[in-house]
Specification:
Blueprint lengths: L6 E4 L1 E4 L7 E7 L6 H9 L15 H10 L4 E2 L15 E4 L8 H15 L6 H13 L5 E6 L17 H14 L4 E2 L4 E2 L1 E4 L7 E6 L2 E4 L5 E13 L8 E11 L18 E5 L16 E8 L4 E4 L3 H5 L12 H6 L1 H6 L4 E3 L16 H11 L7 E3 L3 E3 L18 H23 L14 E8 L2 H15 L10 H6 L6 E6 L4 E8 L17 H20 L8 E7 L13 H10 L2 E7 L3 E2 L2 E2 L4 H15 L19 E10 L9 E11 L7 E7 L8 E4 H8 L25 H22 L5 E6 H4 L15 E2 L7 E2 L4 E7 L9 E3 L14 E4 L10 E5 L19 E2 L9 E2 L12 E7 L8 H10 L14 H8 L12 E3 L28 E3 L9
Parallel strand pairs: 20-22, 20-23, 23-24, 27-31, 31-34
Antiparallel strand pairs: 1-19, 1-35, 2-13, 2-18, 3-5, 3-6, 4-5, 7-8, 9-10, 10-12, 11-12, 12-13, 14-15, 14-17, 15-16, 19-36, 21-22, 25-26, 27-28, 28-29, 29-30, 32-33, 34-40, 36-37, 37-40, 38-39, 41-42
Length: about 1000
């Protein structure tokens, strides 16, 4: 019988009271502001007239070098005085650390930095003048005592730590953990070392020694345990929180038999931990910390090299005590560098291929590591109280939960019931505006196209559609010759009539190289080349489908296409162009992979499953949904509907190298209770002569494709030879984006008046553009959408902010077993509350869901480090080790009820429980990472940048990637492999990595 956990514990600590204080002593170095004018003059001299001048000295390159060559330093970002930021120091060094940066070394670094900053010959004289000034008046180190915990609350009652506390406090706690006796895991001990974190990382990281895993064959795989300490806040809580995240980092050591080198991911930076045998800077003390550098493809040398040439690229003219590692030598013998005192360790990412060590740590082992680390806590910190499950309802599941058939007979009956429900839902979605009350003399028609490449997948997709919708199939199919001869306007046509709708499937073979590589050549192309290739293929696809145009709108196409890895490079993948071309023809798209069997990959065995998922996801794009109905009765307003806002983004590292944003709003209006149906609409800002209006969800997706266009005249990224113009400053651009977003939001909110509406927003996705969602801005039961002061919520509006573990912003967790000695800490599902909060005053709740089906057998007591006895089964009592098995943990999702109307009967806990139930959509096999309306809003991202999961933006300086950790729009809850993506995806909702 499964254990029923009454409480869950989070790996989080908080000050014992608002008066608790913790101070640490440092030697600090301010950035000499007397240098500012001379340095700015040097930087701005000769810049293009249309380029915005530097307003603060660009020290980023120097900061990276300092962090690498003097890892004991804490490097803070330079405060921008013109933006009104509080004064801060540039460099910090704990007083107990020997001088990490002697005066001569600092002067040499500054001189090298100036040469790197303005290397042009015409600036040599001015550069030497500034260098002389810096050398004659070096900045002095100052003794500083910094407060690490105490911070004032905001107007809304939320803790507001100083900017430097995010870095200093976490580093302080990490140093205390390092002072503990090594962690004993039964088969050995873990010895941790610190990894320097960059100025924007705001956290501390500890990495253990590399551990061997003797897997299949005669090769050894290597991995380490990683601890991350981060500082966070919770809405309306006056005390900050410290989180400890534990996960696995895998090291890349397998070289290619063809090239003899380590295979790095194309177009992505790869992190490397470095530990020199002697300090690189002459006269600097020996450090126990790692350094961090990154490798990437260098277009100039046409090979892999250190980013920016590494520190050697900046430090030309300085003699290092030990040469910086040669990139090619490291790639040829990565295991030797790893095992020789961990002199260099290359972080593995799944883009490099598979790894025999499974990612992640399970809940019980994680809880044991946390108990060990808690010994380092100072007295002024205590664990966050254990959370208790809500007792607001008899069940935390929706009123129409996913059925669980008990036997073959029940399963057959359930299959019939589910197929009928899908037909009803499809007819509902395709009816007049999706209105169940609207009468229509015409039966709805599902018009679908099957754009196939292989007969195997074509036949599988047809059979799967028949089963999925329960169609009465006579087995009659076009001949093989008819399929091959079909062309646009004369497809191989299959048709089924049911009581609910008519289904037409038009089968066309993808011809004319529509699914082949984009014609870009073998060299990494420029933005203009990619844009031209995408546009040309998009036009070809639009013409192909336009010739097969029908009257049924919108339509759906299932396209069979190779995996991303099967194309020459990610830039050659035509999926983006296929989706845009189909959309131009009024056709939504879903993709399925060509069946293949190659080394380490076999998609032939699960072709039916992949076809089923493709049809399922395609129908959902048409608005076919089973809405999770709440089970709270009169505890919620009658007729409550749901809305969600989402920021769809294109990042400058995307294929077209163009950054942009577009806000999206989704409205979900449930139909009659008991039907599981709901009308899904999206906000079209251009409708009704620019006033805006709600349109069907499929129409919104098709209209979003216009955002894939790159406007003429928009400058490319700096360094793009094809687009040398400078972009506006980040701050200027963000001010404009925020203004546009808030003006858009005002129209959306006005359109929601008149009916009780629960508005959902994702914290990490929206708060940069809608600043009211930030912890430091929010106030209970108020709202702000622009420069006007915050006001009370409209009477019909409720606001809930959803925050996931992205960026480690929610803590890792586990269910607490009553037997603390012999019990196993597990992973219960429920909505959880803080029992120490006064009754009725709680505004923040936490949602957990069951494990995904494919990981239902993963043991919560799994041990990655030492053998453990099996607890059940035929091999009960035998020892096993789980190093090669992936660990999976559902993420902790924070639900903050920022606004409601308690005086009018609203209950924040009931609202939070309704949002929790929205994660349990009955037509999904697993819980969603996000509530259904947010999930639908996030899916719109695919029509702006369909390859979003493949195009990452650098984030964490050291990271490990799991294939399922970067799901687009949190489709089903992503497996949580306890790893940090080497290149964080633009969109990483819900399911937690950690």
């Amino acid at each position: 019988m499964a254990m029923k956990y009454q409480t869950i514990r989070t790996a989080a600590w908080t000050p014992t009271s608002s008066e608790a204080s913790l101070t640490a002593r440092y030697r600090a170095l301010p950035f000499p502001e007397e240098w500012r004018e001379a340095l700015l003059d040097l930087c701005n001299t000769g810049r293009p007239a249309q380029a915005e001048p530097y307003r603060t000295v660009p020290t980023w390159r120097l900061d990276q070098v300092l962090q690498t060559l003097a890892p004991d330093l804490l490097v803070r970002p330079r405060p921008a005085q013109h933006r009104g930021e509080a004064a801060d120091f540039w460099l910090y060094s704990p007083v107990e650390v020997a001088d990490p940066l002697p005066g001569p070394a600092l002067r040499a670094l500054l001189a090298a930095w100036l040469r790197d900053l303005r290397p042009e010959p015409e600036h040599r004289t001015r550069r030497r003048e500034v260098e002389s000034m810096l050398s004659d008046d070096p900045p002095p180190w100052r003794p500083v005592e910094a407060e690490l915990l105490r911070c004032p609350p905001t107007k809304g009652g939320t803790a507001a730590p100083e900017a430097r506390q995010f870095q200093l406090t976490t580093d302080y706690l990490a140093r205390r953990i390092l002072a503990l006796e090594p962690y004993d895991f039964g088969a050995g001990k873990l010895h941790f070392r610190a990894v320097p974190r960059g100025p924007r990382d705001q956290g501390a990281e500890l990495v253990s020694q590399p551990l061997p895993w003797e897997g299949k064959g005669d090769r050894t795989s290597w991995y380490s345990v990683v601890l991350n300490v981060t500082l966070h806040t919770v809405p309306f809580h006056p005390l900050p929180r410290l989180h400890l995240h534990t996960h696995i980092r895998r090291w890349a050591t397998r070289t290619s038999p063809t090239t003899g080198r380590l295979r790095l991911a194309f177009g992505r930076r790869t992190s490397v931990l470095l530990r020199p045998r002697v300090p690189w800077l002459p006269g600097a003390p020996v450090s126990e910390r790692f350094a961090v550098a990154r490798l990437e493809w260098n277009r100039a040398s046409k090979g892999i090299d250190w980013v920016g040439g590494g520190p050697a690229g900046v430090l030309q003219g300085i003699s290092l005590a030990e040469p910086f590692p040669d990139a090619d030598g490291l790639l040829r013998a990565p295991e030797e560098w790893l095992t020789e005192g961990m002199r260099a360790a290359v972080v593995h990412s799944t883009a490099m291929g598979g790894h025999e060590v499974g990612a992640g740590l399970m809940s019980d082992q994680r809880s044991r590591i946390v108990r060990w680390a808690e010994q380092a806590l100072p007295e002024v910190l205590c664990p966050v109280p254990a959370l208790e499950y809500t007792r607001r309802a008899t069940t935390h599941r929706p009123a129409n939960p996913r059925p669980k058939p008990a036997g073959d007979v029940d399963k057959a009956a359930e299959d019939v019931r589910a197929a009928t429900a899908r037909r009803v839902g499809t007819a509902f979605a395709l009816g007049p505006l999706g209105d169940p009350e609207a009468a229509s003399s015409e039966q709805p028609v599902l018009e679908a196209r099957l754009l196939w490449q292989t007969a195997e997948m074509r036949d599988t997709a047809i059979a799967t559609l028949v089963d999925h919708l329960g169609l009465k199939d006579d087995g009659v199919r076009p001949t093989a010759e008819a399929y091959e001869a079909a062309c646009p306007g004369s497809p191989a046509l299959l048709e089924w009539d049911t009581a609910e709708l008519t289904v037409r499937l038009r089968c066309l073979k993808l011809t004319g190289s529509l699914a082949d590589d984009l014609p870009l050549g073998d060299v990494r192309p420029t933005r203009d080349a990619v844009t031209r290739a995408l546009s040309a293929r998009r036009t070809e696809v639009r013409a192909f489908l336009a010739a097969d145009r029908t009257d049924s709108m919108p339509a759906l196409a299932l396209a069979e296409i190779d995996r991303r890895q099967d194309f020459s490079t990610p830039d050659h993948d035509p999926k983006f162009a296929l989706r845009l071309g189909c959309a131009d023809a009024g056709v939504l798209t879903q993709f399925m992979a060509v069946p293949k069997r190659v080394r380490g990959y076999n998609s032939e065995k699960n072709a039916g499953f992949r076809a089923l998922k493709a049809w399922d996801d395609g129908l959902r794009q048409l608005g076919v949904r089973v809405h999770p109905e709440h089970s709270l009765g009169t505890q919620l307003p009658e007729g409550l509907r749901y809305a969600a806002v989402w920021m769809v983004r294109k990042n400058a590292s995307s294929r077209t190298r163009w950054a942009g944003h577009e806000p999206v709003a989704i409205r979900v209006t449930p139909a009659r209770p008991g039907t599981g149906l709901a009308r899904v609409e999206g906000w079209d800002r251009s409708a009704d002569n620019g006033t805006g209006a709600w349109i069907p969800y499929p129409a919104l997706l098709l209209r979003l494709t216009r955002l894939a266009e790159v406007p003429s005249g928009v400058p490319g990224p700096r360094g793009d030879a094809a687009q040398p113009a400078e972009r506006p400053s980040w701050w200027q651009d963000m001010r404009r984006q925020r203004q546009e977003t808030e003006e858009w939001l005002q129209k959306v909110l006005r359109s929601l008046r008149g009916t009780p509406t629960l508005l959902l927003a994702h914290a990490q996705n929206c708060r940069s553009h809608w600043t009211w969602l930030q912890d430091g801005q929010s106030e209970p039961d108020r709202i702000r959408t622009g420069h006007a002061p915050a006001r009370r919520l409209d009477p019909d509006l409720r606001l809930v902010r959803v925050r996931t573990s992205q960026g480690r912003e929610t803590a890792q967790w586990w269910g607490v077993h009553p037997d603390e000695v012999n019990g196993v800490n597990g992973l219960p599902a429920n909505l959880w509350t803080d029992p120490t909060t006064a009754a009725g005053s709680a505004r923040v709740f936490w949602s957990t869901t069951p494990k995904a089906q494919q990981f239902s057998g993963s043991a919560v007591e799994a041990d990655k480090l030492a053998p453990r006895p099996l607890r059940a089964g035929k091999r009960k009592g035998e020892l096993t080790v789980d190093t090669d098995k992936p660990a999976w943990n559902p993420g902790l999702v924070e639900l903050a009820v920022l606004g409601c109307h308690q005086a009018d009967g609203d209950d924040p806990e009931a609202l939070a429980l309704a949002v929790h139930q929205l994660r349990q959509a009955p037509d999904h096999s697993d819980a969603l990472s996000l509530p259904l309306p947010l999930h639908l809003a996030g899916l719109a991202q695919e029509y702006v940048l369909p390859t979003i999961a493949d195009d990452g933006a650098a984030a964490d300086p050291v990271a490990d990637t799991d294939p399922d950790a970067a799901e687009v729009a949190g489709l089903a809850q992503a497996p949580e492999p306890d790893s940090d993506p080497e290149q964080l995806t633009l969109f990483a909702p819900g399911g937690v990595v950690g």
